[in-house]
Amino acid sequence: MVRLKHRYLLVNILYPENAASSATKPKIKDEVPYTVQFHQPTSDRIDARSLTQMIRSGVAELFGDYGSGMVAASLQIKYFSPATSTAIIRVARDHYRLVWAALTFTTKLPHPANQACVFQVVRVSGTIKKAEEEAIRRAQRSIRQAQRQGGLKSATPAPDAAVAATRTSVDAMDVDDRFAHGIDDADEDGDEDEDD
Amino acid sequence: MFFDLNVPFDLKWTANESQLPRILAFLSELGYNVVALNHTMSGKLPASLTSAIPDPLPYKDLPPKLTILRRCTLVLTDTHQNARLVELSRNYDIFAVRPIDEKTLQLACSSLDCDIISVDMTQRLPFWFRFKMLSEAIKSGKRFEISYASGVMGDSGMRRNLISNATQLIRASRGRGLIITSEAKSAVACRGPWDAINLAAVWGLGQERGYEAMTKECRSVVVAAQFKKTSYRGVIDVVYGGEKPVAVVAEQTEKVKTNGKQQVNGQKRKADAIDVSESSTPKDEDGRPVSKRQMKRQQKEARLKATADDGVAGPEAAGAGPKPSM
What we know:
Chain A: InterPro entries: Pop5/Rpp14/Rnp2-like (IPR002759), Rnp2-like_sf (IPR038085). Chain A: GO terms for molecular function: ribonuclease P activity; ribonuclease P RNA binding. Chain A: Belongs to the eukaryotic/archaeal RNase P protein component 2 family. The complex is a heterodimer. By secondary structure, chain A is an alpha+beta fold. The longest helix of chain A has 25 residues, at 48-72. Chain A has one domain (7-20, 28-179): Ribonuclease P, Pop5 subunit (Alpha-Beta Plaits), CATH 3.30.70.3250. Chain A has a four-stranded antiparallel beta sheet, sandwiched between helices. Helices cover 36% and strands 15% of the residues of chain A. Chain B is 44% helix and 13% strand. Chain B has helices spanning 20-30, 82-90, 102-110, 131-139, 149-153, 156-173, 193-202, 207-214, 216-230, 245-265, 270-274, 292-309, 314-320, and strands at residues 3-8, 34-41, 67-76, 94-99, 116-118, 143-147, 178-181. A seven-stranded parallel beta sheet of chain B has the order 1-2-3-4-5-6-7. The longest helix of chain B has 21 residues, at 245-265. Classes of the chains: A alpha+beta, B alpha/beta. The interface between A and B is medium-sized, with 27 and 32 residues.
């Protein structure tokens, strides 16, 4: 019996535009550095289920019945943190590119939020562990970046929330830029991860 | 190093309400290192061919790590004079052309001197890409552009056309000599480099080729375009001539000095023009060159003086004699 193999996509949700359209959310001022604006926390009205729904409909729109059939059984959101706007999505290994393409063609969040956003896949991993580690590393890095740029503006909620959300023993591992967009494409679960 | 060689630059944007700083910041956030602002021209060329994109840009908070280039895209509607195009391309970092039918595509691939060939992929093209034509262009260093923003933001018809044209281009070029750009008019249409590579992978371009289309091929366009402008006939370029900047400055000031003196004198002497270096000809107190007769006279004087003093300060005086100016 051959084991069913998966890919884990670590996804960042970025907000290229200021959240002026959503009424309930306070408008972030323009003085806030761009980095912090882009890494806003996601609206609470979005949860893993609506995100899954969005991906399914996206795949169906792009790839039709064939695509959604191929992806349907394995697609699952393993982790979703609105505070850091990060998600880990599981897909079957053979068809992860369909889901990725559907994410790329997504321009806004599903119905209750309706906010313009960009999904960026920052890591493709064969194991969920590596995806988690990368998520933690990136959260730490974005906090440091925001601190550098904004000079520790306490008005922005994103960094503090991010600290709470990445439930980790923070070993202060300095990340170089090499890791920033490394896509790991390991074929086996036990494989060593190599970044490019 | 990731490149995005097509970010449309709209001249109507004023400095305070422009989208551009946001787009550039977002591209930098996504991981791009080099971005080219694109100015599209169509129809007749204007009289003055200066760059329409201001340099430096009138925005204050641009991302520091981002290199910004300037690109010009010319829509090939009517016949242009080649000399004018060369002049136009000299004002921009990258020169691209947009053929609209088979004839202009043939022209762009063969004789026209451009860096990027950019075909409008949102429409159904009235021609096929042929490998022979494309390979000719790719061999001479031209690259074909695939822009994904119209597929991301446009309706399903545009997306369909984009996918159809992109797959045809990938098939006909066999995956070589392509570059992937955004052509994003707003920040929402930008995508990360790896997302774009994946998209190309879905469309039939291998991941390795896609990675090259985002990095290596773009770099070759930028470097070749720069090379065309700075080098001697596109063959030889002096990157570093081994010169020492301080010494050069000193020499220049010296030259200026001597020139000034010649003008004060009001006379132009052949000997002066040939012998510029100051150290070789001895000079008197006023700085004028000493004639040979005068030199001999001085030497004789010194010798006489040396014999008169005789041994007290002889050798030194004899040594210093011939060069009174020192």
